[in-house]
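Example: Ig-like domain-containing protein.
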Amino acid sequence: VDHTLQYYHTAVSSPDHEMPQYTSVGYVDRIQITRYSSDTGRSVPVAHWMERLEPEYWEEETRNNKQAQEASRRNVKIAMSRYNHTGFHSFQLMYGCELMDDGSTRGYWQYGYDGKDFLALDTERRVYYPITDQAQLSAQKWNSPEQRAGKRAKDYLEKNCIEWLKTYMEYSKKELDRKVRLNPRFTLIVVTMKLHCQVYRFYPRDVDVIWKKNGIDILPEDNRHVLPNSDGTYQLRATAEVTPGDGASYSCHVDHSSLDEPLIIMLGNTFYSHLMLCMAK
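Written out as structure tokens, the predicted fold is:
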């Protein structure tokens, strides 16, 4: 059986939208093990078996996250300046390692801006490559002989990450297969012919969110990333381009294991500048 250790860091330009300015969460095999928030300024265990680690471990994790918080704060400002953006925006760091059943390993390290790919690590060449034009300056700086950030990231993925994964596996026990009923808030927004369907606070991670036009699937506008919340649940936004006034009927379809049947939100053929639907248990 393959095992994974993954971390997700999210920084926002301002503490808004019910989100702290910075959060970091860690997972082993999709089970949340740690949480850090700029609201508390402390790294804390989430999985019960992580409580067995020494206090020194949590002090070190807190120091590391405070440094990452400062770096993420700078990164979101840099990205906004590159895009000439103002307002609310987010910057994500996702990295992790995988230990295969045959003993082989692999890892990844990538950055995102507003949920879209921004910069990623070429683990073979140990250098970062830009995914957008706005990321080129960052890649050049991080790949410079003075920084060699790609080499440091690769070394971490091959050594420290795998070592900690093995340690956590020793501490862990078999977790119950739990489900948290989907408790989403949908935000349906038409801005320059775009619809956004946002689903918040669901667990487990796997979910299908699809826009349909007159009952026919609409291809998503861009890559969709399921992002973690600090409480162990997840969120996702699906975006589709539409043509206002075309007389078509649009609907957002959500399928999740916590639902007895797929949830369908009909928008109809009348468009609203802002339509919000809050769902409760």
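The chain is about 20% helix and 40% strand.
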